[in-house]
Amino acid sequence: MNMSTTIDRSHIEALVRKAIAEAGGLASSSGAQPGKPAVAPLGWVDGKPNLRVSISARHCHLTDEHVEILFGPGSVLEPDKDLYQDGFYAAKQTVMVVGPRRRMLPNVRVLGPTRPFSQLELAFTDSISLGIDAPVRHSGKIDGTPGCVLVGPAGSVQLDQGVIRAARHVHMNDHDAAYYGVANGDMMQLVIKSHDCSVTFDDVLVRADKAAKLEVHIDTDEGNACHLDAASEVILQKMPGACACGH
């Protein structure tokens, strides 16, 4: 026997409203939670910042002019390996660094892209080896710093200033800064827990940028001191005593 089922208009509308409500419930359950961004920020994992601590070995930054002097007319930096921060890379080119006592460091890596001024970043033991009294400075703060000679396959450059021991710092984006309650220029504390050689680093400068991923940079001396490669835990936090505004 053939049967036909008639569903009235009001029942259809009720089914539609129910489907829309359920779809809305699914959307809201997978959406942003209060205090969290709707879309995962750059570098975040499982709804929170993914902290990376990297050892920044000795390296130099060059101007376009110095690249051509050191490597030949028309030369440009050739990317060899991308760094964690998007848009930055270790170049194929290296230079020799000559200190005031004719002491040398061969094969110092050049990082790109080029900059408006050339700068050499060393660890303390590197500066001792070269015989250069390099001060601890934040990148770009090179006024009054010592210089050196850079030697490439096509020529040499005398830097009157620009040799520094790079101060420890943390790159982060605006979402990371909000998560930690800090702002660009604030100081944070990094705790490295390693067997028998745990170290707490104060004065970690916040360098906030919209395109940055959360990454702390320390030099080779600092990395060796805390045995970073064998660390069991790393903690980044506001400096003790910092107010709620992050200053």
From TrEMBL:
Its main location: other. GO terms for molecular function: acyltransferase activity, transferring groups other than amino-acyl groups; metal ion binding. InterPro entries: PTAC (IPR008300). The keyword Transferase applies. It comes from the Bacteria. Belongs to the PduL family. This is Phosphate propanoyltransferase. The gene is pduL.
